[in-house]
C-alpha cells in the first residue's frame, strides 16, 4: 500500500481516504486526483528493459486484459519517457506504416510498470519548438505557429500570476486599438480565431487534430469564464457555432471512421471517449472529462479486430481526432437503416411552364440521376406534378413506359395506386429517363393558373411517411388551392413600419404543423421558389426551417436568360447529388456548470436539448447559446456535439465533435480570446429571431446595444478612462472588425431599415442569415471588394493554393476610380463595376466590345478571350464561385458607373462603409457608438 511518508514529487499532496482505505494523491496546481502514487519523471533515460519486466506472479489479477510484450512500449511510453510517433502519441506508429505486432509472451498491462503509466499521464507529450514570433492573432508575424502549441518552457512569472486559476500556460496577450484612428482591414476576417491555449497535459495525446477545427465548431470565446458574473461583466455572448456536416474540400483531411463498433461512453453523462479523458487504474479505467465519472475501458478497446490480435490504443482515432465518426451497433437503431428517398414536387402551372423552370428542372434531374446517392442501389424516387390538380406518375420496373394518374380532389388527398409511384432508382431508371424527357411537353399548353402545393406536399408525405426522406418542392407561384392556401399580403404601406415584422411570420399555421408532422416521420423539405410576383417566402420557408431543409429563391426566374438557367441547374443538381445525413438527432454536451440555453438554425427541438433533423444537408450551420450555471473549477472545459444519423448509403453512424477550451477568471484573457466572426454569426441568428418575435426595429436596437455593451465593458475594465468620457473608442485588436460586421448586419437586406425591401427578399435574406456557415455568412454581411484593373501581376494566376486573389479593399466608394474595373461579391452575387472612363482597351480585353458606350449592364456571362487579362479576371470569378463550401452559384452582374440606377444602388449597397439612405457611414456609426459608450446621444 502506498504510504503518505514516501517522497512525493513537487506539487503533489496525499490524503487518506477512509472509505477506500488508501491514499488519494492530489495535484495541487490543478486539483486533479488519482489513486496511483505520482512519480517524478527522471530526466535520465530509463533502463531499456524497465518497461517490459513482468510483474511478480503473486500480484497477478486474472480479470486484467493481456497484451503481447511488444505492445508495452506503445502503451506505457517509450524508454526515455518521451515519444517520436507520427503525431506524438505514446509510441504511435502511423496508420500507413504500422508495424506487425511482435509475438511474445502475454502479460498484464495494469500491473507491469504501473508507475510508467501514471508518469505518462502527466508528462507533456508534444512540445513545439520555441518561437520568438508574436503569440497573438493580430500581431505582426501572425499565422506562423502550429495549431497545437503547449508551452515549451517551465511556468514563467507571468503564468504564476494566473496560478489561482489553475492555469499553467501563458495567457493570450491583449492588444488595445482605437477604433477612431485605426481603419478596418478586410484581410483580418480571413485570420483563424484566437489560439486555444489549453493547460499542459489536458490532452492525453499530442495529435495536432485533438481539438476541433473551427470550420466544424467554434466558440465566441476561446477561454471560458469561470463564473456567470465574469461573463456578464464582459458582455460578450457565449455561444457555439456548429457546422457538423462540413464539406470535405481538396486539402481537407477526411473524418476518420471507427468501424469496430467499440464505443466507449461515460455511464453517467453519456459523453463519448475523446482525447481529453484520463486513463486511471493502470489504463483499465478512464475518467470522464465532463463529469469526472470513472468508467471501465471496454474489453475490445485494445483489440485490433482487423488483424485479430492485440492492438495499440494510442492509434485509435477517437483518442487522436476531435472529429470522428463511429459505425453504430444495433442498439443505436430504432429500426434498420432506411434507404434514401427523394420525392420531387414540380409546379406545372402556366407560370412555371412559361418561365422555363419545368424544362430546366426536368433536364437537371435527368442529368443528375447518376449523381443521386445510390451506392447500395436502394434509393427510391417519385415525381409528382401539380397545378390545381395532382399528377402522379406510375413507373413499373423493367419498362420504359410511365402512366399519368390525375387526382383532382385536392381537399381529400389520396394515392391513386398503392405501388409503382415510389420506385427504386436503379430498377426504374429507364422509365424515369423517358418520363423526364416528356414532362415539359405534356404540360406545354397548360393554361391553368393556381397552385395546390399544400395537397401536393400531403401526397408526397403519404408516399414516403413509412420510410422518411427528402421532399424537394419546385414552385413558381403563391399556393392558393387546398390546404396551406395563402393570400397576397404584401402591402407597401406597412413596409418600413413596426407592422412589417408581421410579414416575416408564417401566414398559415399549416406550414408549421405540417413541418412538425414531417419531422416526426423523418421527412425533410427543401424549397425552390421562382415567382416573379409575391410568393410568401416567410410562410413557405417554415417547412425547411423545422425539418432541417434549405430554401432557395430565384426572383423573376426566366430560363431564356442562360445565367438564370445555369444558376438554378447548378444549385438544384448539387442538392440532388449531395450525400445527406438521414434520420438524424443532434445533442451538445458540455462540462459541469455549462448548459445549452437556446438553439438557432433549421431543426425542431424535440426535448430540452435534442435537435431533430430528418436530413442534415452539408454546410448548414447552427448556433447554440451557452449559459454558465455554476462556478467552474476545472482548468478547462469540453463541449461535445454528437450527431446520430443514417448515411444515404444505409449505414447508421455517430459523428462526434469534441472541442476543449481553457477556463479563466481574468477579464483581459476573455477579451483576448473573443472570436469576432463567431460573435457576428451568433448575432445574425439572434437578430433574425428577435425581428420575428418582436419587431425589426427591436432587432436592430438589440444588435446595436450588444456592441455598445461590449465596448463599454472594455472601456471601463481595460482602459485608463474607466467609467468616464474618453476621446478614444477602445477595443481589443482581435475584435477590431466587430463594429464593421455589426454595421454590415444592420445594413443587410434581412434587417435593414428601409421601406423599399419586398417581404420575400427580406424573408429569404433571413433564411440565409440563420443557415449559412461562417465562411459564407461573413462575406454576406461584409462583402469583398477587389480592384482588377491594377491588380498585382500574380493575381488571377495559379499559385501554391490555387488561383491567387487580389488584396481586398476597404468597402468604400472612395476607392472607386472613374477609369477602373472592380469586383464586389457577397457570396450570393457578384458585381463587375466598370468606371465611365474605362479605356477601350480594357473594355475590349474583358468584354470583347469596342468601347464603354456599347457595353450593357445586367446579368452576364463573361467571355473567355485570348488575352492574359481576360483569363485572369475569369479565373478570379471562377475561384470565388468555387472556393467556399456550399452549393450556391453567384450571379455576375455588369454594373456601369452611369448605368441603371437600381443596379448601381444595389452594387453600392455592398460598400457598407459608405452612407446609404438613412443608414450611417462607418465613420458616423463609430461616432454614434462612441457617444453611446460615453453616455451621450441616442442611436
How would you characterize the overall build of this protein?
By secondary structure, this protein is of the alpha+beta class. The strands form ten sheets. Strands 8, 10, 16, 25, 27, 28, 30 and 31 form an eight-stranded mixed sheet that branches. Strands 17, 18, 19, 20, 21, 22, 23 and 24 form an eight-stranded mixed sheet that branches. Strands 33-36-37-39-38 form a five-stranded mixed sheet. The protein contains 23 helices and 39 strands. The chain starts with 11 loop residues before the first strand and ends in a 6-residue tail after the last helix. It is globular and about 95 Å long. Helix 15 runs parallel beside helix 17. The longest helix is centred in the C-terminal third of the chain and has 23 residues. A hairpin with a 4-residue loop joins strand 30 and strand 31.
How is this structure best summarized?
The protein has 939 residues and is α+β, with helices and mostly antiparallel strands. The chain is built from 23 helices and 39 strands.
Number of strands: 39
Helix content: 10-25%
Question: What do the pLDDT scores average to?
Answer: 81
Extract low-pLDDT stretches.
1-5, 41-168
Number of helices: 23
Largest sheet: 8 strands, mixed
| SS-derived structural category | alpha+beta
Span from first to last CA? 71 Å
How large a portion of the residues is in β-strands, by DSSP E?
Answer: 15-25%
Rounded to the nearest angstrom, the radius of gyration is 30 Å
Global geometry: globular
Amino acid at each position: 500500500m502506498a504510504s503518505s511518508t514516501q517522497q512525493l514529487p513537487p506539487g503533489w499532496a496525499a490524503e487518506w481516504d477512509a472509505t477506500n482505505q488508501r491514499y488519494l494523491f492530489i495535484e495541487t496546481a490543478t486539483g486533479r486526483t488519482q489513486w496511483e502514487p505520482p512519480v517524478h519523471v527522471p530526466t535520465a533515460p530509463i533502463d531499456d528493459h524497465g518497461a517490459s519486466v513482468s510483474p511478480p506472479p503473486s500480484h497477478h489479477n486474472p480479470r486484467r486484459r493481456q497484451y503481447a510484450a511488444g505492445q508495452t512500449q506503445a502503451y506505457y511510453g517509450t524508454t526515455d519517457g518521451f515519444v517520436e510517433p507520427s503525431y506524438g502519441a505514446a509510441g504511435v506508429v502511423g496508420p500507413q506504416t504500422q508495424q506487425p505486432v511482435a509475438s511474445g509472451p502475454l502479460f498484464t498491462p495494469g500491473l507491469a510498470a504501473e508507475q510508467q503509466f501514471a508518469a505518462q499521464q502527466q508528462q507533456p507529450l508534444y512540445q513545439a519548438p520555441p518561437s520568438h514570433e508574436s503569440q497573438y492573432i493580430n500581431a505582426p508575424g501572425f499565422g506562423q505557429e502550429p495549431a497545437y502549441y503547449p508551452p515549451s518552457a517551465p511556468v514563467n512569472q507571468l503564468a504564476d500570476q494566473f496560478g489561482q486559476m489553475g492555469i499553467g500556460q501563458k495567457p493570450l496577450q491583449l492588444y488595445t486599438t482605437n477604433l477612431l484612428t485605426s481603419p478596418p482591414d478586410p484581410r483580418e476576417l480571413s485570420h483563424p480565431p484566437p489560439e486555444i491555449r489549453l493547460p499542459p497535459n489536458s490532452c492525453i495525446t499530442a495529435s495536432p487534430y485533438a481539438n476541433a477545427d473551427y470550420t466544424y465548431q467554434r466558440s465566441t470565446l476561446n477561454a471560458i469564464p469561470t463564473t456567470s458574473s465574469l461573463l456578464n461583466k464582459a458582455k460578450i455572448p457565449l455561444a457555439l457555432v456548429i457546422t457538423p456536416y462540413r464539406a470535405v474540400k481538396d486539402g481537407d483531411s477526411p473524418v476518420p471512421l471507427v468501424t469496430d463498433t467499440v464505443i466507449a461512453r461515460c455511464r453517467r453523462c453519456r459523453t463519448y471517449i475523446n482525447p481529453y479523458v484520463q486513463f486511471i487504474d493502470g489504463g483499465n479505467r478512464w475518467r470522464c472529462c465532463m463529469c469526472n465519472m470513472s468508467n471501465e475501458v471496454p474489453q475490445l478497446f485494445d483489440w485490433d479486430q482487423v488483424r485479430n490480435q492485440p492492438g495499440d490504443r494510442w492509434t485509435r482515432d477517437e483518442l487522436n481526432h476531435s472529429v470522428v465518426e463511429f459505425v453504430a451497433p444495433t442498439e443505436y437503431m430504432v429500426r434498420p437503416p432506411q434507404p434514401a428517398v427523394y420525392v420531387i414536387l414540380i409546379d406545372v402551372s402556366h407560370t412555371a411552364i412559361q418561365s422555363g423552370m419545368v424544362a430546366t428542372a426536368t433536364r437537371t434531374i435527368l442529368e443528375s440521376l447518376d449523381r443521386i446517392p445510390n451506392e447500395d442501389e436502394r434509393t427510391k424516387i417519385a415525381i409528382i406534378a401539380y397545378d390545381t390538380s395532382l399528377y402522379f406518375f406510375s413507373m413499373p420496373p423493367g419498362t420504359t413506359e410511365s402512366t399519368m394518374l390525375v387526382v383532382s380532389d385536392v381537399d381529400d388527398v389520396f394515392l391513386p395506386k398503392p405501388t409503382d409511384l415510389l420506385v427504386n432508382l436503379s430498377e426504374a431508371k429507364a422509365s424515369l429517363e423517358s418520363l423526364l424527357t416528356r414532362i415539359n411537353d405534356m404540360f406545354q399548353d397548360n393554361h391553368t393558373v393556381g397552385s395546390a402545393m399544400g395537397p401536393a406536399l400531403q401526397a408526397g408525405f403519404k408516399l414516403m411517411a413509412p420510410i422518411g426522406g427528402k421532399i424537394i418542392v419546385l414552385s413558381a407561384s403563391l399556393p392558393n388551392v387546398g390546404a396551406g392556401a395563402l393570400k397576397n399580403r404584401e402591402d407597401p404601406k406597412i413596409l418600413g413600419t413596426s407592422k412589417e415584422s408581421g410579414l416575416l411570420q408564417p401566414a398559415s399555421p399549416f406550414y408549421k404543423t405540417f413541418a412538425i408532422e414531417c419531422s416526426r416521420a423523418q421527412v425533410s423539405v427543401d424549397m425552390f421558389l421562382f415567382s416573379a410576383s409575391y410568393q410568401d417566402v416567410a410562410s413557405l420557408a417554415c417547412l425547411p426551417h423545422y425539418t432541417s431543409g434549405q430554401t432557395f429563391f430565384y426572383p423573376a426566374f426566366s430560363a431564356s436568360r442562360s445565367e438564370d438557367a445555369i444558376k438554378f441547374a447548378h444549385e438544384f443538381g448539387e442538392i440532388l447529388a449531395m450525400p445527406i445525413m438521414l434520420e438524424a438527432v443532434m445533442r451538445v454536451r458540455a462540462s459541469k456548470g455549462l448548459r445549452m440555453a437556446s438553439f438557432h438554425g433549421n431543426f425542431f427541438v424535440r426535448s430540452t436539448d435534442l435537435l431533430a433533423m430528418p436530413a442534415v444537408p452539408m454546410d448548414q450551420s447552427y448556433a447554440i447559446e451557452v449559459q454558465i450555471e455554476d462556478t467552474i473549477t476545472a482548468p478547462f472545459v469540453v463541449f461535445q456535439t454528437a450527431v446520430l444519423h443514417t448515411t444515404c448509403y444505409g449505414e447508421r453512424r455517430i459523428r462526434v465533435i469534441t472541442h476543449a477550451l481553457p477556463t479563466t477568471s481574468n477579464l483581459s484573457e476573455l477579451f483576448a480570446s473573443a472570436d469576432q466572426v463567431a460573435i457576428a454569426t451568433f448575432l445574425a441568428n439572434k437578430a433574425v429571431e428577435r425581428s420575428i418575435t418582436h419587431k425589426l426595429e427591436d432587432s436592430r436596437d438589440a444588435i446595436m446595444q450588444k456592441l455598445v455593451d461590449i465596448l463599454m465593458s472594455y472601456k471601463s475594465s481595460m482602459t485608463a478612462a474607466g467609467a468616464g468620457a474618453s476621446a478614444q473608442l477602445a477595443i481589443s485588436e482581435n475584435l477590431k472588425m466587430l463594429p464593421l460586421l455589426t454595421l454590415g448586419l444592420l445594413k443587410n437586406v434581412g434587417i435593414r431599415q428601409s421601406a423599399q425591401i419586398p417581404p420575400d427578399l427580406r424573408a429569404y435574406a433571413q433564411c440565409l442569415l440563420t443557415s449559412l456557415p461562417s465562411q459564407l455568412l461573413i462575406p454576406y454581411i461584409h462583402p469583398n471588394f477587389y480592384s482588377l484593373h491594377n491588380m498585382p501581376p500574380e493575381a488571377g494566376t495559379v499559385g501554391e493554393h490555387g488561383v491567387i486573389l487580389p488584396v481586398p479593399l476597404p468597402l468604400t466608394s472612395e476607392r472607386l476610380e472613374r477609369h477602373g474595373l472592380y469586383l464586389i461579391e457577397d457570396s450570393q452575387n457578384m458585381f463587375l463595376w466598370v468606371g465611365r472612363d474605362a479605356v477601350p482597351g480594357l473594355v475590349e480585353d474583358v468584354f470583347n466590345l469596342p468601347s464603354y458606350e456599347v457595353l450593357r449592364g445586367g446579368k452576364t456571362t463573361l467571355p473567355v478571350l485570348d488575352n492574359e487579362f481576360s483569363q485572369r479576371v475569369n479565373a478570379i470569378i471562377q475561384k470565388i464561385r468555387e472556393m467556399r463550401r456550399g452549393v450556391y452559384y453567384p450571379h455576375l452582374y455588369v454594373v456601369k458607373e452611369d448605368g441603371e440606377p437600381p443596379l448601381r444602388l444595389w452594387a453600392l449597397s455592398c460598400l457598407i462603409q459608405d452612407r446609404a439612405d438613412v443608414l450611417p457611414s462607418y465613420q458616423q456609426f463609430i461616432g454614434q457608438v462612441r457617444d453611446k459608450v460615453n453616455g451621450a446621444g441616442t442611436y
